[in-house]
Amino acid sequence: MDIGSKNWAYVKSEYVFFKSFAKDFNLTGIELDAYRMYSNFYNRYEIAKFYTKGLENTNYIAGDLLEHKGKYDCIIWVLPFITEYPLVKWGLPLRYFKPEEMLLHAYKLLNKGGEMLIINQGEDEYQIQQELNRKLGLSSENYGKIDDVFGVFRNDRYCLKVTN
Fold first, then answer.
1. What are the residue boundaries of the structural domains of the chain, listed by start?
2. pLDDT tens digit string along 106-130?
3. How far apart are CA 153 and CA 145, in angstroms?
4. How far is Cα of residue 158 from the mean position of the Cα atoms in its chain?
5. What is the pLDDT of residues 57-99, one digit of tens each?
6. Which of 1, 77, 120, 124 is least surrounded, with the fewest CB atoms within 10 Å of its CB?
């Protein structure tokens, strides 16, 4: 599962990656703000449906993570909103700022032995994420700063893995 998958322009990369490890798998993306309109008059949902076309067992969900039910072996969460500033900059109302509740819910979606890979932006957010994990009693392995091999990150990225 990919949390906050926006228009899921990178779904084919995720699909090829997971296909190299498993014959049978389902790939799910979920996006709270799926109907945000772009300047080309398509919304994220429509664009995601285009990118997922032809990818078997791939499902894009327009919805709130906190209302989602399911079980997953692997969850990918890139740049979760763990401080208010990025949420507001993305144009989302503060009522959606629920980092503890969302992280705990995402954790409960993991199968036993499942893993959640979390990528944070900047060292400050990474430290907040680590503290949040500790506070909630989640076991995590900290990988630290990750390399930007493509040179596309504006800010440093940090990675950790939560295991159920």
1. 1-63, 71-164
2. 999 999 999 999 999 999 999 999 9
3. 12
4. 14
5. 999 999 999 999 999 999 999 999 999 999 999 889 999 999 9
6. 124
Long-range contacts of 67-73 (CB under 8 A, 24+ apart): 68/30, 68/105, 68/109, 69/109, 70/1, 70/28, 70/109, 71/109, 71/110, 71/111, 71/114, 72/1, 72/28, 72/109, 72/110, 72/111, 72/114, 73/110, 73/111, 73/113, 73/114, 73/115
Nearest to 45 by CA among 83, 8, 99: 8
Residue 61 phi/psi, 5° resolution?
-115, 125
- Site of tokens 């309109």: 37
- Amino acid letter for position 137: G
- Distance separating alpha carbons of residues 163 and 73, to the nearest angstrom: 10
Superfamily of domain 71-164: Vaccinia Virus protein VP39 (3.40.50.150)
**C-beta separation of 105 from 69 below 8 A:** no
